[in-house]
């Protein structure tokens, strides 16, 4: 290392030593790859000190400008060194990463663009997904290349926006990769899974992406504030095509796209146990008959995943910095969907087709906003960020958000997503009280998307919830879905309730859902006659028997004749048939 220092000093007075220096650095960094981490650290520390002590020296500038990319390639193995003591290796990796970025900032911009773009374009996401060691090493390497590239591309204000398009596309691919890691490997996606280095892959890559989003968002909002436009973002964008908006608005849009992509791919698939936390703290209309884990257990799991929660908080802070609430971005997303301007924008580099605002991201934002307002302070005794609008109208949320919420759980097997959706729906079930007629059930159109349709009916919504109740693998989530169906039926008028039950007993439903429908119906019949409420007194009972019970009894007979082999459903229908017979027998005795 003393030889390197000596050659550098000579270089200041005689550039004939330039080739000697290049050869010395290359040989030193190549040979030192097999050294113990203490020796590696000393070598890198010496190089760092030399470069920092001669920042204004022309020979050093020339060295970094012309040889910088070669030095980065020689430094690359030190980013993932693992030759001995873990703590010392960690220090080597941190120092090499810092040196990597310092050198990267001194390289010619065009050279950075070419070589870093090449490194990012060569990413083999599928290979990374199949091997933990490959994923860890590649993540560390690519995050450093991306850091150099992204910062270099955003140095020139006049080309800032154009230079962020390729990094944004890289972030999109990286987030899609991290979503697969969450679903397949990481404990962040399932708290029951043992923590591993896959969690570290998510942490490092996600925070690198958030660094870039934070830079985009800060730059956009600073420009908008200078122009006194930061308070009217949605008003301006809802009357101006994105292609015609000024640069600051386009930067804001790109930041928002990437942020919602983070909510969609990362936070939506994190195991946060929001439903358990909420039902432990706030009792709702239906007691959970199969109790969730104890509150202390859930909170302990949060403590063990503090890094994951910090990432959620970081996304939340960027949301506030961009001036976004779930309702404002939902309305803007729908405006884009219905606007002729968005079609004309597709010729622009930043357009709604290439960078669409995610409905799933918006639903996740809603879940995290409710978590922030209801759970952060009450459960964790921390200060919340006040992410919900000042005036919260649960009825408006139910009307405007039900479609995206149910679309969000289109895959009933996705436990983390179903947990967040049911968390929202249980909150709404606690707050919303309405009376549903058959016309409302079958004819009233609600805004989607749901099942890729722009509008849907409550009957369509019930089908999705039935699918979740029947097919989700988590018993507590299945039970909650069943209880939400029961809550929905309670909101229906008498004739609508019968219509719903007949619909649920239809053969197109899965056997578990049909069995559950039978159980719900049996429970209602028994409770109604046991309680002898005013609805079931006097001549009303005659009408109920004639209008509902006898037709239902006939329907069960017909169903039993057509069934073959499905013993579970046959047993359930027989139980219901016996219940009806008993009810009508007791009624006739009176």
Describe the structure.
Helices cover 70% and strands 2% of the residues. The chain has helices spanning 2-13, 18-31, 37-53, 58-75, 86-106, 109-121, 125-130, 132-153, 160-163, 165-184, 197-226, 233-237, 247-265, 274-281, 295-304, 306-321, 326-338, 340-344, 359-374, 394-408, 415-431, 438-442, 458-471, 475-490, 494-504, 511-531, 539-562, 567-589, and strands at 446-450, 453-456. It has a two-stranded antiparallel ribbon with strand order 1-2. Among the domains are: 1-107; 508-590.
> How would you write the strand order of the largest sheet?
1-2
Low confidence ranges: 532-536
Question: Mind summarizing the main beta sheet?
Answer: 2 strands, antiparallel
Strand residue content = under 5%
Number of helices: 28
Helix content: over 70%
Q: Cα-atom Rg, whole angstroms?
A: 31 Å
Question: What is the number of beta strands?
Answer: 2
Order of helices and strands: HHHHHHHHHHHHHHHHHHHHHHEEHHHHHH
What is the arithmetic mean of pLDDT? 82
What is the SS-derived class? mainly alpha
Distance between the termini: 104 Å
Global shape: elongated
Topology:
Blueprint: H1 2-13, H2 18-31, H3 37-53, H4 58-75, H5 86-106, H6 109-121, H7 125-130, H8 132-153, H9 160-163, H10 165-184, H11 197-226, H12 233-237, H13 247-265, H14 274-281, H15 295-304, H16 306-321, H17 326-338, H18 340-344, H19 359-374, H20 394-408, H21 415-431, H22 438-442, E1 446-450, E2 453-456, H23 458-471, H24 475-490, H25 494-504, H26 511-531, H27 539-562, H28 567-589
Antiparallel strand pairs: 1-2
Helix pairs in contact: 1-2, 2-4, 3-5, 4-5, 5-8, 6-8, 8-11, 10-11, 10-13, 11-13, 11-16, 13-19, 14-21, 17-19, 19-20, 19-21, 20-21, 21-24, 23-24, 26-28, 27-28
